[in-house]
Amino acid sequence: MHTTKIKEGDEREEMELNQIWRACRKIQGAIYRYNFDICADLKQHDPDCTGYVSESIFTSVLGKYRKVVGMSEFELKDVTDYFQIRDGRVAYRQFCKTVCSENLSKTADKELATGLEWNDPWHLNVIVQPEERRKLCLILFKIAKETHLPLMPYFQDYELVSQHVGVVTVSHFSRVLHFMKIPLSEADYLLLLKRYMKDGYLVNYVAFLKHIDNIIEYLRHHNLLDGSGDLIENFPGRLVDLELSQLPAINGCQMIHPIFPDACNHPKKNRGECDIIFCIQNYVYKNRIRTCEFLEKFDALQVGCITKNQFERGLSLMGVGKYLSRRELDLVMDRYVDPVDTNRIRWRNFVDEIDTVFTMKNLDKMPQCVVESPLAHIKEMPRPGTLDWQAAPMDVRELCEEAIAKIRIRIRNRRLYLHPFFRNYDKLFCGHVNCHQANQIFRINGILLSNAELDAVLHRYGNELGFYYTKFLEDVDPAEYAMPNMVAKQDQKECPPFPRDNKVPEQPSEEVITRILTSAKRQALTKGASVLDFLTDYDRHREGLILESDFKRALDNALVILSEEDANILCNVFRSPTRSACIMYKDFCKALDEIFIQYDTNMGDKLVTAVPLLHLPNLDCIDCFLNFDERTTCSKALMKLARRPDEISNLSQVFKDFDRQSCGSVTQNQFLRAITLREMHNMLSSREFEAIVKCFAVKRGLCLEFNYREFLKILDVLYATGQMKRNY
């Protein structure tokens, strides 16, 4: 144990020395960069040349250059403490030798330092393992291949702010790689840091960019890059083609780029005419596009045909052209080509087929026809990047079903409402969030899934835009428990009668309803909660009605704690007669308002008056109960304290100083401090003190506090009673 403590002390001392040395290196770099002389400023305050100055002078001199150097106040204090001697002075001569490497006797013939001996621009760490060196070369090669813009400006912008030379922090280095869309796994990123790390928290980006430029120059010199800067395919490589590894798992969510490689549930090169038409119909339906308006302006003579170039321009104006390749566009034009003139397209046939997603043509001649909009194949069409769930492995589908069932149970039992959490992240209202944001929402609401279950859910509801939370919420939170079950009642009416005991559900008695309302009244008053504000948040249209689930959720938020059975009884009492799934919360709040006022309606004058009432709830609790021994001890202790009531000790002023909110109660510690301040603590033992605290305890929130007002009243009564006896 003693050896372990010695080792810990040595490690702590080594860390402190490293911090001091890092601060000195900052001062060194600033001296040679800005050419200011700290040593001369310190020497002016030492006329006797003793080599020592006071701590305040040393701190003030370094404080002038602190912002230029980039030192924090903690680093300045550490440097001052390190060079400080026992009498409080600071050995600035030793500091100057360390920082300036001089003896304060520079000559004019002495060569000036350039500062390069302090900061090596090509500082690199040695990679010993040959496997790591090869892997590092492959990583640099792929970064050079993925990089199409110069990286130097991104690092230099940070350098202007931080005032460093050739180095950036680890976090900024990571941000630049992420901004340039260069995905690296955790192992690859740590290998880069292992090579270019400097001083334990900086990255030498100058050497990193130099190596990237060397690789690019090598590829260009050997004609391995085409005109656009991309690598020529199938070149006889001296370098192994290594695919960049995936990003590390974040909160159990595997993030890859792109998220799902399948772009439209089938490869684009294999899409046929029907698939292309379905995709166009889906795009037109989502964006509510009038296809005719973009094509009819090219047909000035209204012959129903336009050229292929005009048809392609119309699709581009419509916004569809950017999603179609040249091959797919040719397939669409071959489908609607004019048999008389093969250079023209029958655009009216194209418009009629695309508009079937909205309605049918000549519908006025078919009054009995039922129009389905959108069509079933368009409505069920998977979004781009969605995994083919029917072709997914069976184990993944079973894991997803188990996870969905677990989420449904959690939502139903805890009455969770996940829509606001997803909408907070969905700023563009596109119905999608990032995968790690979905995982974060699950964790916030206590939905704990394993990594395998989370991956299965993400594969089920993920696409190239992210996590499709709209579809997810439709499946896991249909809110059936909040809707009236009208079908069951119809089935009961259609059932043939047969002899059985028709038991009517028992209605709660008035005593039970009064007990529940009294409990809610007491909690609303003691906790000072405005129940109406919590209930009004769920009534967006101010109808005076909210859903039953929202009513229960608002009571929980207002700290009105009721059991499930009591909450159901309240919902049945205040249920709306016209909308059985909703609760008339205003009537409930009116019942709670009777705590403070009583409504008196005068039918003759048609006036409603409110008479204020004083409601005194019982503040006693189980923790305040005293047995016979404790009551005896408390009474004896109060008789002792009654010798010095408020008239003599002025104890009330001390309590009022502690009671900033004027609620009439203080904490147990504040009560002890108050009687100690008036020197009354010597009159009580620890057992008597605990008995008094328990006797006058009152529950505030989750803690017990001391009711000093009742305590002072009791002391005054006991003092007056004893004084009258003595006078008698």
From TrEMBL:
Residues 646-681 form the EF-hand domain. One of its GO terms (molecular function) is calcium ion binding. This is EF-hand domain-containing protein.
